[in-house]
Design goal:
The complex is a heterodimer of chains A (968) and B (230).
Chain A (H helix, E strand, L loop, with lengths): L2 H14 L29 E2 L13 H9 L4 E2 L2 E2 L9 H5 L11 E6 L8 E7 L2 E7 L12 H4 L1 H5 L9 E3 L8 E3 L2 H17 L6 E5 L5 H11 L4 E2 L2 H4 L1 H11 L5 E3 L6 E5 L10 H15 L2 E5 L5 H4 L3 E3 L6 H14 L5 H7 L4 H8 L4 H8 L3 H13 L4 E5 L1 H4 L4 H14 L9 E3 L45 H6 L7 E5 L3 H4 L3 H9 L7 E5 L11 E4 L8 E3 L9 E5 L12 H12 L12 H8 L13 H8 L1 E3 L16 H4 L3 E3 L8 E2 H5 L3 H6 L4 E4 L2 E7 L2 E3 L14 H7 L5 H7 L36 E7 L13 H4 L7 E3 L1 H7 L6 E7 L2 H6 L15 E11 L7 E5 L34 H6 L43 E8 L1
Parallel strand pairs in A: 9-10, 9-17, 12-13, 12-15, 13-14, 17-18, 18-19, 28-32, 29-31
Antiparallel strand pairs in A: 2-3, 4-5, 5-6, 7-8, 7-19, 11-16, 20-21, 21-22, 23-24, 23-25, 25-26, 26-27, 28-33, 29-32, 30-31, 30-33
Helix pairs in contact in A: 6-22, 7-22, 9-18, 12-14, 12-15, 12-16, 12-18, 15-16
Chain B lengths: L6 H8 L4 H22 L4 H7 L4 H9 L9 H16 L9 H6 L5 H13 L9 E2 L3 H15 L7 H18 L4 H10 L3 H22 L7 H5 L3
The chains are: A alpha/beta (968), B mainly alpha (230).
Chain lengths: 968, 230
């Protein structure tokens, strides 16, 4: 026996011979009474506390004999008794393996790798997820699932997942951590939050979310606490489109184009085949419309997206001119008398003549001058579109709305549908009031909403950000904190990656680092990222495959439905969902918060919420049990939401109702009196609003009481008095009451912040776009079909497809600037000159020799391609992580220095990893050594200025003027 | 029927109630337990103070230059906790001590499922203050200790059963304790504190010896060694 062996034996003797230490397991500080993951529906792989009594201990040799003799499969490290392989490169070698899913449970759930929330089925065996596919029962996604959804396994079993709560050690942003227990974490957070409450400024606790699909849980917690400072990313996403929809409809902020039944689909800048909210069900229906219904798809987009490329025709207009083209098309349709006069005169609040007058200056020739699209094409497309009425629809999204003039762009686009009368028609431009879970599902009683106010949540400069819905203006949050307009005692971030995904990366980092601006930061996330890096406590969040939700989004079936997000597998490590730990936190904070959490488990809460799902006639299962089996339920008794304005108001609803005529000289009269009166009386009161208990409920249309639109005029409001008045801070109480919709006047804090909003659809061009210099381009942004904005670059199956993002430049532009494919450029980005005039509160930064404010500079290689407008430069988002996982950073080797450095080549020996991480960039940032299609790309937000649409607050991601200079 | 290594002899000797053999197994089990404790969580004050007392401190130093302060201060505990975190917990670029990560580059892979099977065979659930997945090195070391302890009960198994018992022990070791060499190499290189460099060294040395004893394949042990066995 050698010396070392003897030393170990001596050590063992000492330890086992009464060293005074119980080494057989540890006595941990588990939270009293807490049963971990007790809500999970499967038995997982976690070794949880609680050992068997000593008397029962032994070794089950009979079982060993049985499993020893029949190994399922030979994996890479020999037979593992009774264990099947996970999918992956080795599984591929064994393909087809017909036994792989033989005994696997099929568990329905819902994806959350983007906002579309497609229904999914997880195959689970031995507590492990083997595969994810689309759930055919989901009425919206119909069993389709995109590449992101297929990468669920990368997300679930990523080796760098956060598994334990962490506490910062050292300075914020330094990157040093230690593990703490949930007990310690919740105690500290509760103590901080209790102090916020006691300070009398509950609004100084802000909850800042990225993608949120547990809205009920967040609302419950914030309302119970007493703060309404809930910050979102809506203004980075869809604020202008939603505001444009609300201006016309009030009832819904989301148009659901009935493309499956269309004959003509006119697309302004939407990339629905890749990245639109709800893109999977939308793309599926677009293709059905085209190939089953013969629809034509025409796309206007600065860039040749996959949607543009798959269209029948693609036009590349100058950035931000979609609205000009749409107005010129409207002009053409009226000029050609292809409009639907009946719809305009009956169901909009302007006449055909008024429209003609308004649209007179917007000729196709005028639009050609600003957009570069020929007048002849504008005319031709407009005529084609109108000839298909009413089965024709526009579609749009960030391509048209993420501009300084985005609100007007989208109003102009939507107008086309009113002019041809396709609003609400089968195959036309539709919507529904069901933007989420079927309202028949009622969660347990909610706390009353608090009445606090914060400039971060309701900035007074943006009049339409919050009057209908709480859309907020996310991109100003850090700037306003820096300006001292608000401070935060506790800042809780959730599924958020603001330094990467929000404009002005360095400003965001500066504010997140400053403990005088944000005193305490709790970050809830599945992975460490650029936001977590600036946290004080990081809480490990469950994946969407480990937690509960009822979820749905506005369905293209124009009906309500509900889907179930199910914990398919047990949470790994100590990951917990907010549904699980918010009750614990509330009980610690106390002061009445705890009473809003009477349920003993998350499952009990879900059972109450899903109680109204009716029984399945075949299985007899109802409520949560039914959803657990089927995954989703759509109410078949609800008719699709076509032409809701033509639906009659019932006699019961009309009881006691009054008619308020559009002409002020006529007095209000009871509905019954007018309906039973002479024809002349009915004619006088034609188009009068039906009001009951002070609220509008319908409109008298040609002698029939109809529901109408949910606007003050009960018509499709081409001319909006409301937006004009609300922009000026005028009292709109009466208009709001007539609509019957929950909206609000602007609060007293908005006094003095007046903005002129045109009541009619119009268009303007930002000053800085009007005279671009030879070396200046308009920088636009886009999203890939395999990524969301900030969360998917860590998924290797996706990163392998897209991991880098050189700037797209047209070959003609490149030639003019002396550039070749693969060259590196320096771009200097400028703050908007238009915003300098309209929004002086945003102005910050240094001016260059030209007198313009520089938002930032960055170096990036280019790719030249025809698929981009010659005056535009396109850079995708999703790339350029610097704190996300090593996959997201495309790193196999550790960076030099730093104790949290990454891996070296020997760390992992997964051959798939080693073989396929071919895109690692070893150039060290040297343009001369950089090889195309390597590295993890560049974050466009390094130079993107904060630039909200002055009306809605929507960030204008596609408007920044950049100067381009060749380097190297 | 099944091939056994020379460890079979060792197991058979146990039935003779050979005191030395029993003590040998118990001592090995105790070392496995200590390693499990050190890998499974941050060093507690109790354990640190125990390890810093003679004669343990001298033995540990002799094995792996394991040096402990004579008096354990809060800052020592903090420093070790930070080092433990950056090495094994994260938040990023760390060295997750899970077999699945090192075999398949993902969490909760085949190794975790296999470990669950072994835990079921033993009807055993180690108790830890943190929730660890079953293929965590600490759990694997702890299960080995448990197996050794149970296998040394002389009257618990028949002669035929002992052959299967030896088979189980060998298979367990081969499948779940041969893999960590690369992890240990990395820990030794990236540890900030001497404590965790020593832990890597001590674990490496002990597992090499066990590998030689169990599999006769010394001095190296790694995943390639695993593959070479039936």
């Amino acid at each position: 026996m050698d010396r070392s062996r003897r030393s170990f034996l001596r050590l063992g003797m000492l330890l086992g011979g009464g060293a005074g230490l119980e080494l057989a397991g540890c006595t941990g500080q588990l939270e009293p009474g807490r049963t971990r993951q007790s809500e999970a529906v499967t038995n997982g792989s976690g070794a949880s506390p609680g050992s068997a009594p000593a008397a029962q201990r032994g070794i089950d040799l009979e079982k060993w004999k049985s499993i020893r003799g029949e190994p399922y499969q030979v994996g890479r490290f020999g037979p593992l008794p009774g264990v099947c392989e996970l999918p992956g490169p080795l599984a591929k070698r064994n393909w087809p393996d017909r036994n792989k899913y033989k005994d696997a449970a099929r568990i329905p759930g819902m994806c959350q790798l983007c906002s579309t929330v497609c229904g999914i089925i997880g195959y689970v065996k031995n507590g492990r997820l083997l595969k994810v596919e689309g759930n055919p029962n989901d009425p919206n996604s119909r069993g389709h699932l995109c590449a992101r959804g297929q990468a669920a396994l990368n997300h679930q079993y990523h080796p760098e997942r956060l598994l334990y709560p962490l506490r910062r050690v050292g300075r914020r942003g330094e990157g040093q951590w230690k593990r703490i227990t949930w007990y310690e974490a919740l105690d500290e957070i509760a103590d901080r939050l209790r102090r916020v409450r006691e300070s009398g400024h509950p609004e100084q606790f802000a909850f800042h979310q990225g993608r949120l699909r547990s809205a009920d849980a967040v609302e419950r917690f914030l309302s119970a606490f007493g703060t309404s400072t809930q910050l979102t990313h809506r203004a980075l996403c869809s604020g202008s489109r939603r505001a444009a929809n609300l201006t016309y409809l009030w009832e819904s902020d989301w148009d659901l184009n009935d493309v499956e039944n269309s004959k003509y689909i006119l697309n302004f800048g939407s990339n629905a085949f890749e990245a639109h909210q709800g893109h999977v069900p939308f793309a599926n229906r677009i293709q059905n419309g085209r190939f089953r219904n013969g629809a034509k798809l025409v796309t206007f987009d600065v860039r040749l997206s996959n949607t543009a490329g798959a269209s029948d025709e693609w036009f590349a207009p100058f950035p931000g001119t979609d609205g000009a083209i749409a107005l010129a098309m409207a002009h053409t349709i009226l000029a050609e008398n292809l409009h639907d006069a009946d719809f305009i005169n009956r169901w909009t609040n302007v006449t055909v003549d008024e429209l003609r007058q308004h649209l007179r200056p917007y000729t196709p020739e005028w639009a050609e001058q600003v957009s570069g699209i020929s007048a002849a094409d504008i005319r031709r497309i407009a005529i084609e579109f109108a000839q298909c009425k009413p089965a024709c629809t526009t579609m749009c999204n960030r391509g048209s709305s993420a501009h300084l003039n985005g609100y007007y762009n989208d109003r102009a686009i939507h107008l086309l549908n009113a002019i041809v009368g396709s609003v609400g028609r089968r195959g036309g431009w539709c919507w529904s009031p069901w933007s989420g879970v079927d309202p028949a599902m009622q969660p347990p009683p909610m706390p009353p909403r608090p009445k606090t106010w914060s400039v971060l949540e309701d900035p007074p400069e943006y009049p339409l950000a919050n009057v209908w819905r709480r859309m907020r203006v996310g991109e100003i949050v850090y700037l306003y904190l820096l300006q001292g307009r608000e401070k935060l005692q506790v800042y809780m971030t959730y599924n958020l990656d603001s330094p990467l995904t929000w404009p002005e990366e360095s400003l965001t980092q500066q504010v997140l680092t400053d403990e005088s601006l944000i005193e305490f930061h709790v970050c809830i996330n599945c992975f460490y990222n650029e936001t977590a890096h600036y946290a004080d406590i990081v809480l490990p969040w469950t994946t969407y495959l480990e937690r509960w939700d009822l979820d749905a989004r506005a369905s293209y079936n124009l009906r309500p439905y509900v889907g179930l997000r199910t914990p398919m597998v047990e949470p790994l490590g100590e990951a917990r969902d907010i549904r699980d730990f918010f009750p614990d936190l509330a009980r610690r904070i106390g002061g009445g918060m705890e009473k809003w959490y009477p349920e003993s488990s998350v499952r009990e809460y879900m059972e109450k919420w899903a109680a109204n799902v009716p029984p399945n006639p075949k299985t007899g299962k109802r409520g949560l049990e039914r959803l657990l089996e089927e995954g989703a339920w759509e109410n078949p008794e609800v008719e699709p939401y076509y032409e809701p304005y033509n639906r009659p108001v019932s006699g019961e609803e009309l009881a006691g109702a009054m008619l308020h005529p559009p002409r002020a000289e006529l007095p209000p009269l009871p509905v019954a009196q007018v309906l039973e009166g002479p024809d002349e009386l009915r004619a006088k009161y034609n188009h009068a609003v039906i009001v009951r208990d002070g609220k509008g409920i319908g409109i008298l249309m040609d002698g029939r009481p109809l529901r109408g639109f949910m606007t003050p005029s009960r018509k499709f409001e081409i001319k909006s008095v409301f937006v004009h008045k609300i922009g000026r801070n005028e009292d709109c109480s009466e208009l709001i009451a007539r609509s019957g919709v929950k909206a609000s006047n602007r609060p007293p804090q908005h006094s003095g912040y007046n903005t002129e909003i045109d009541p009619l659809p119009t268009w303007f061009q930002p000053k800085e776009h009007q005279n671009l210099a030879e070396d200046e381009l308009v920088m636009t942004s886009f999203k890939w079909n395999v990524h969301n904005h900030g969360r998917t670059m860590n998924l290797k199956w996706l990163a392998e497809i897209v991991h880098s993002n050189p700037a797209w430049i047209n070959p003609r532009t490149a030639e003019r600037l002396g550039l070749n494919d693969g060259d590196w450029i320096e771009i200097t980005a400028y703050f908007s000159q238009t915003l300098e005039e309209t929004s002086p509160h945003l102005v910050h930064g240094e001016r260059d020799a030209t007198g313009r404010i520089v938002a930032g500079r960055m170096r990036i290689p280019i790719v030249t391609m025809e698929g981009i407008h010659p005056k535009a430069l396109a850079i995708s988002n999703s790339c350029g992580h610097w704190q996300y996982t090593n996959v997201a950073q495309a790193k196999r080797t550790p960076p030099e220095g730093g104790h949290t450095a990454g891996y070296d080549l020997d760390t992992f020996r997964d051959p798939d990893w080693e073989r396929n991480m071919w895109w690692e960039d070893t150039s060290g940032g040297d343009p001369h050594r950089w090889k195309p299609n390597t590295g993890n790309g560049w974050n466009q937000n390094r130079v993107m200025p904060i630039a909200p649409d002055p009306i809605t607050g929507q960030q204008s991601f596609h408007d920044t003027v950049v100067k381009v200079r060749k380097i190297g | 029927m099944i091939r056994l290594s020379r460890y079979e002899k060792l197991v058979e000797h146990i039935t003779d109630c050979d005191r030395d053999i029993l003590e040998f197994a118990a001592a090995r089990a105790a070392v496995f337990r200590l390693l499990a404790r050190l890998w499974g969580e941050e060093l507690s004050r109790d354990l640190a103070e125990l390890l810093s007392r003679p004669p343990l401190v001298e033995v540990l130093h002799a094995i792996a230059d394991f040096s402990m302060p004579s008096r354990v201060e809060d800052r020592d505990l903090q420093q070790w906790a930070v080092d433990y975190c950056q090495l094994f917990v994260g938040p990023r670029g760390h060295l997750p001590p899970y077999q699945s990560v090192w075999m398949d580059r993902r969490l909760a892979g085949e190794a975790a499922a296999s470990m669950e099977r072994f835990l079921q065979l033993l009807n055993y659930r180690p108790v830890w203050s943190q929730r660890l997945m079953a293929d965590h090195l600490a759990i694997q070391l702890d299960v080995m200790a448990e197996l050794l302890e149970r296998s040394t009960r002389p009257d618990a198994f028949s002669r035929e059963e002992r052959r299967w018992l030896a088979d189980l022990l060998i298979n367990y070791f081969r499948q779940h304790l041969c893999w960590p060499q690369r992890l240990l190499d990395q820990v030794a290189r990236r540890a900030i504190t001497p404590l965790y460099r020593s832990l890597a060294k001590m674990t490496d040395e002990f597992l090499r010896q066990e590998c030689e004893l169990m599999l006769g394949s010394g001095p190296g042990f790694d995943v390639h060694g695993c593959d070479s066995h039936p």
